[in-house]
Every structure is written in C-alpha cells, then in structure tokens.
Design a protein that fits this description.
Elements lengths: L5 H13 L2 H7 L3 H8 L8 E3 L5 E3 L15 E7 L4 H14 L2 E6 L13 E5 L2 H11 L4 E6 L2 E3 L1 H8 L6 E10 L9 H15 L10 E4 H6 L8 H10 L3 E12 L5 H22 L5 H14 L2 H8 L1 H4 L10 H22 L6 H24 L13 H18 L6 H28 L8 E2 L3 E4 L2 E9 L2 E6 L11 E7 L5 E14 L2 E8 L3 H15 L9 E4 L4 H32 L2 E5 L14 E8 L8 E7 L4 E13 L2 E7 L7 E6 L3 E9 L4 H4 L5 H19 L15 E4 L9
Parallel strand pairs: 3-4, 3-6, 4-5, 8-10
Antiparallel strand pairs: 1-2, 6-9, 7-10, 8-9, 11-13, 12-13, 12-15, 13-14, 14-17, 15-16, 16-17, 18-26, 19-20, 20-25, 21-22, 21-25, 22-23, 23-24
Helix pairs in contact: 1-12, 2-11, 4-18, 7-11, 9-10, 10-11, 10-15, 16-17, 16-19, 17-19
C-alpha cells in the first residue's frame, strides 16, 4: 500500500470486513436450525428450553398429549402517524378479528379511529397507555401492533398456547399483504431471518407487529418510555423467563405506498431496530453480545456502502494497493456476488438481485440516520417532516464528489480510467433512481389499493368495481353526466364476495370516459358497519395470489404543504438533470483523455472570456510549439493554475524552457521543466458554460451559498410535522384505471 493512500486502503479493508457480518451470524447457527427455519411452519406445540438457553418448538409427533386449549388474545393497536384511512381500516379489521384495545399519545388519536374498540387508553406516552390497557385486558395474551397491521388471530391463538410460567412471550413474523409497496421488502425478509438466527444464540429482540406477550407481564412490569422494547424482554430474561419462536405470520401489514408515508415509517422502524440491537450488544452473555454486534453492523451497512460509492474519490492520489484496478474489480465483483448468494441460500431466501438492490438503496438513508438514535440511546417521537427524495439528493451529492475526484487525476492513467468507469456506473444508478422517483410521482397516494371486481350501484346506476382502497373505489359503468359530475354526492352499494352489501355515502372525485364506459373515482365515507365489511373485503382481495396493478391516475386534494413539496421535487429533478448531464460530459471527456477547465481571469481576452471552458490534453513539455495555449495546474507567480499562450520553446540537456504570455497581458512568464514533464495543451473551448463556477472564486460567494444551503436543509429537516387532517375525505386518494386505447383520455 502506498503511504499517501493508507487512509483509503484502511477504509476499503474495513468495508470488506464489515460486509461479512451477516454471514458470520449465519455461520454461528446450526445447519439443522436453518433448514427448519426455511421450511413450512411446523405444528405449534409447547416450547422447551434448549441447551443455548432459548426456547424452541417441538416437532410434530414428539408428544402424544392432546393439544392445549386455545387461549384468547387481545390486539393492542398503537396509533401513531399512520394515514387516517389506513389506521381506520386496520382498527376495523382488528375489531372484526377479536378483542381490541387502542393505545395512543394524546395528540395522535382522532375520534373516528375509536369506533368498535373495547377500550381506548390515551396518555403522554404509548408505554403509559399500554400499562393502563394491560390492567384492563382480561385475555391471557396481547399482541401489540401498529395501526398499519392486521392480526392473524388464528396464528396468534395457536402461538399463545405456548405461553406458560416459563415462556413469557412468542415472536413470530409479519408480512405485507398489499402488492403495490413503495419499495421492495426483501431486506426486511433477510433481516427477520438473521434475527431469528441470532435469537437461537440468545439474543432477545422485539419483533415489531409480531411479538405476543403474556398480559400479566405488561401489567406487573411497565415498559420504560423512550427505551427500546427489547430492553423489556431482556430484563424479563434475567428474571428466568424465556421466549419461543414460531414461523407463522402473527400479523399482516399494509406497507406504505407513497414517499410521504414510506420515509417517516421506514426511518422510524430502522432507528428503533438499530437501537434495540445496540442495547442487546451490551447486555447478556458474550455470544449473544457478539451476534448482536454483527447484526448492528448489518443495520449500519450504509457506511461501508459510502466507501464503495466514494471509491473514485478515494483513488484520487493514485493506486491504493499494488494491484491493477481492473484486476481488483474483477476479483471483488465475483466475491461480492458469492457473498450475496451464499447468505440467501443459507437463509432459504429466494435470490432476486433487482429487488435486493432496490431494497438496499431504499434502506440506506435509515441506516445512515440510525447512529443518531444510538448516540441518544432513547427513542423520541418525531415531530419533523422527512424529505421525500433523500436518495436523489444523496445520489446527486455522491456523483459530484466522485466526479471531483476523477477530474483531479491525470487523464489516461489506468487508475483514472477505472475511477471514470466507477463514476459512470454511479451516475447510471442516480439516473435509475431519478426515473423511478418520477414514475412514483404518477401514482403517489396515501393508501394501498387492490383489484376488486364486484357488482355495484352508484346512485341508482349499475356498474362494477375495478379497484378499491380503504377510502375509495373505482366503478365502471354507464353513469349520466347530469347526476354523476365530479363533486356530486352519491350513495354507492357494493355486493361483497361473502354475500353481504356495503352501503356508503360517497363523493365523485374523478370521472373518465373510455369508449362506451364511464369510469368513476369515488371517495368513500363509510360508517362503522360499512367500513368493517369493506375493509374485510379488501384484505381478502389483497391476500389472493396473482393480484396485478393496472395503470391508474391518482386524484388527491392538494394542500399548501403538498404544493411546496412538489415544487421542491421539481427543483431536485431539475438539479439532477442539469448536474447529471454536465458530469456525464465531463466524465466522457476524461475517459477520452481530455480535462475541462474553467477560465477564471481575463488574461486571455478576447480569445477566452471569463467563464469559458477549455479542453486540455496532456503532452510532453518538449512537444509544445509557439502559438499553442498551455495550461499548468500550478504556477508559483500566480499561486494557482495558469492558461497562457506559448511564445517560445527551447529544449536542451533534458530541460525545456518556455516563455508564455496572456493575450491581454503586457509581460511574459519564463519557466523551465524537465522535457518529459506532462503539461496541458488547450485543444478546444466552450463559451460561457463555466460562468457559475467563477462565482466560487471569492470567499464571500461560497459563504453566502453555504448559508443558503444550510438554511434550506435546516428548514427541510426541522419543519414542523403537517397537521393531521380532521377528516378522511381530505386525504383519501381514489385511483381511476386508464384505458390507453381510448382517444378521449389524452
């Protein structure tokens, strides 16, 4: 390793070791346990303590005693920042499944969410409300879920049968039921499998929406506010209690489908998960601590990822190791693919490269922000808005940094070419996510939807539903324009697949004409009974296999905050397009052996004006000829680079003496270098496009620009959370399918 490149080499070595943490977790788990975890769920029986101190399930046929009584389970719904229509539907489904209790902070609950619940507990913290709920619940066990999840009561009852005096909690799994998720959940699937492997080694972690607890434990031992709930489990473990694990999904979860709901939810869950794992890494037995530390490395994977993304900039000073960069890339690439494949093969997870890449990118901001919670060691309710395009901003910054590293290298060198190739790959990823963000804007909405084909009646006119969401439905049929214009209030009746009828007031949010069929987008305002049946219908439709998503047009009521967010999105996209185009041109020029430089002074007027960009190629000093324009990276008399015209060249005894003068100057510069020294020769120029770069030459302009940028970031991050809408009709989005074969939809 070269001394000047030692920091870069250390960073790369750490990133290589860091990436192996998930494999080490798997290697610590017996193979037979991995095979059982990847197999279909076994029949649930009483748990038993294993040699490693954890509880496991007995295989079918090992005991002849009759199955235990199925205990009752209460669903405790934690209401937070979920969209109103999602929370309303989730509560209705929980009430339909069995006893339901709602817990919430004082400012998170609205009256419409409490309909049908057995009791509602509101306190300054969710933990205090949970304590009150535990003292009022009469069932043997409780399942604590968010207002995005729906309990699988059959699986919960079977799992609760495992609870006894020694086993105080059961951890299962959860899975999303809606197909139109904002991002892939593949990383969460792998993470859940890894946590189960770590649990076999004695690591006790709280599994969100999938932890079933004995009711009396919550009543006797309050959960400490602001701390990860896994601390509560680990404290009970020190008292002699144990947990058991099941492979069944204890809940189904409505995954976010829009940036505005995805990023707050994803960042909060990742911060809580990282804090829980970090707390487990400093408690318990040495093996459990080691496994928790390895899991934490996986949660903080964004930091080694940044090292790889900044590799072009790290290569600025030349070769890091005494290896050809192309040979190193060919060696590391297959190793990375082998590590990726082996991890998923060991965990019995299907290998889907595209989904895994998307999931990794979309979890990177949460991984990057997790250390904030680790430093505080507490979880605090977020009251700040979250940027809806963090990946675009990050990709833009990384591309500029990488390009800066490339432009400072000697064109044509092997390392430079490798760095340029990496930068172009990075730019390609930036464009891919930018295009993805643009596509997402076309169907951004607040709630999921599924295809539903049922008979419907809209204000006396028959039709059929096309798709539905918790707060809306699209209906196809022949509807008179005089009685069904946009904004009209109607009553819709839908015959559900169980034979019942959902009847609800609605408002026509959108109307389209497709051939001889009218397409209506309706905002629903159902009562408790109608909401119960409609939510159950959506869940049944969402869990059916083979659901596809047709092309839709989303209709949402805009607010002032949303207009501001859309304006910011347009600015981001414009910056990405302009910067990407400029960086692409610069990188291609570097790849061809040229280097773009901005003219910063008027010494070459009128041939080169301030703000012009000149293209420079590298030649030997003794190849210069009078009349050519030479560019030096540094000239002592100026304290910076110089671009002047050659007046004379004299070479003797391995030394070249050159006289240069600016076209607008009255005096010349005489300088001498060895004849084989590489200098720049101007071969072309582009007028004016570098003018913005000339502004940063003074100290005042960068300071002003920096303060403006800092102020924008502070306003974006610290901006107060938007007020929750008082009624669902202000946030409900209704999707109307688009028939592209119809000419009157253009």
């Amino acid at each position: 390793m070269h001394p000047d490149s030692r920091p870069a080499g250390i960073a790369i070595a750490v990133a290589l070791v860091w990436s192996c943490a998930p494999l080490l977790v798997v290697l610590s788990t017996p193979r037979r346990v991995l095979e059982r975890s990847g197999s279909p769920p076994t029949q649930l029986r009483h748990g038993s303590n294993s040699s490693d101190g954890s509880s496991r399930l007995d295989e079918p046929g090992q005991h002849d005693e009759p199955a235990p009584r199925r205990p009752t389970v209460t669903t405790v719904v934690r209401v937070g920042d979920e969209p109103v229509e999602i929370a309303r539907s989730s509560v209705a489904l929980a009430v339909r499944a069995g006893p339901t209790v709602i817990v919430s902070r004082r400012d998170d609950l609205t009256d419409e969410l409490t309909a049908g619940a057995d009791s509602v507990h509101i306190a300054d913290t969710v933990e205090a409300a949970l304590l009150a709920a535990a003292n009022s619940v009469t069932t043997e066990a409780v399942l604590v879920i968010s207002a995005r999840a729906v309990p699988e009561m059959g699986a919960c009852a079977d799992a609760a049968a495992l609870l006894d005096e020694r086993i105080g909690w059961i951890t299962g799994t959860t899975r999303p039921f809606n197909q139109d998720r904002f991002s892939s959940d593949r990383r969460e699937v792998v993470g859940a499998r890894l946590r189960r492997c770590a649990a076999i080694g004695g690591v006790e972690l709280w599994e969100n929406d999938a932890t079933l607890v004995r009711t009396d434990l919550f009543a006797q031992h309050p959960v400490e506010p602001g701390r990860p709930w896994g601390n509560w489990l680990r404290a009970r473990a020190t008292e002699g209690l144990r947990g058991a694990r099941v492979d069944d999904a204890l809940s189904l979860r409505a995954a976010p489908v829009a940036a505005a709901s995805y990023w707050p939810d994803a960042l909060a869950r990742q911060r809580a998960g990282a804090l829980d794992i970090a707390a487990a890494a400093v408690s318990g037995r040495p093996r459990a601590r080691m496994l928790a530390a390895l899991l934490l490395c996986r949660e903080l994977y964004a930091y080694p990822l940044i090292v790889w993304l900044l590799l072009p900039a790290l290569l600025r000073n030349g070769v890091v190791f005494d290896l050809n960069p192309w040979a190193a890339a060919l060696a590391l690439g297959p190793l990375a693919m082998l590590r990726w494949w082996s991890l998923r093969h060991a965990l019995s997870v299907e290998t889907l490269p595209r989904s895994d890449i998307i999931a990794a990118w979309y979890h990177a901001p949460g991984s990057l922000a997790a250390p904030v919670a680790l430093i505080r060691r507490r979880l605090r309710p977020s009251r700040h808005a979250t940027p809806t395009r963090p990946l675009v901003w990050a990709g833009l910054a990384l591309t500029v940094v990488a390009a800066d590293g490339v432009l400072r290298q000697t064109p044509g060198a092997p390392t430079s070419r490798a760095a340029v190739a990496l930068s172009l790959a990075l730019l390609g990823m930036l464009w891919a996510f930018t295009i993805r963000a643009l596509v997402e804007r076309n169907w951004t909405r607040t709630s999921y939807w599924v295809r539903v084909d049922l008979a419907a009646d809209v204000g006396g006119a028959p039709g059929r539903t096309v798709d539905g969401s918790p707060g809306g439905v699209a209906v196809s049929g022949r509807f008179p324009g005089s009685t069904h214009p946009p904004g009209a209030e109607v009553v819709v009746e839908v015959t559900l697949d169980d034979g019942s009828t959902m009847r609800s007031p609605a408002v026509v949010a959108a109307r389209r004409r497709s051939r001889h069929t009218d397409l209506l987008g309706l905002e629903l305002h159902p009562g408790p009974a109608a909401l119960d049946g409609w939510s159950a219908q959506l869940l049944r439709a969402a869990t059916e296999p083979g659901i596809e998503r047709p092309t839709t047009v989303s209709h949402e009521v805009s607010t002032t905050g949303r207009r501001g967010a859309e304006c910011l999105d347009r600015i981001v996209m414009a910056l990405v397009v302009v910067t990407s185009a400029a960086v692409t041109v610069a990188l291609v020029l570097v790849l061809l052996g040229f280097r773009p430089l901005v003219v910063r002074s008027g010494s070459m007027v009128p041939n080169y004006q301030v703000g012009d960009v000149v293209l420079v190629e590298q030649i030997r000093a003794d190849e210069l000829r009078p009349g050519e324009v030479v560019s030096l990276d540094y000239f002592p008399d100026f304290g910076e680079g110089m671009t002047h015209r050659v007046r004379s060249v004299r070479s003797a005894d391995g030394t070249t003496e050159v006289e240069t003068r600016g076209d607008a100057n009255d005096s010349s510069e005489d300088w001498a270098v060895s004849s084989d020294t590489m200098v720049g020769r101007v071969v072309a120029s582009i007028p004016a496009i570098g003018a913005p770069a000339t502004l940063v030459r003074t100290a005042t302009i960068p300071l002003v620009v920096g303060l403006i940028a800092l102020g924008a970031i502070v306003m974006l991050v610290l901006r107060g959370r938007p007020d929750r809408p008082p009624a669902p009709d202000r946030t409900t989005s209704t999707e109307v399918p688009v028939d592209h074969s119809s000419s009157d939809l253009s």
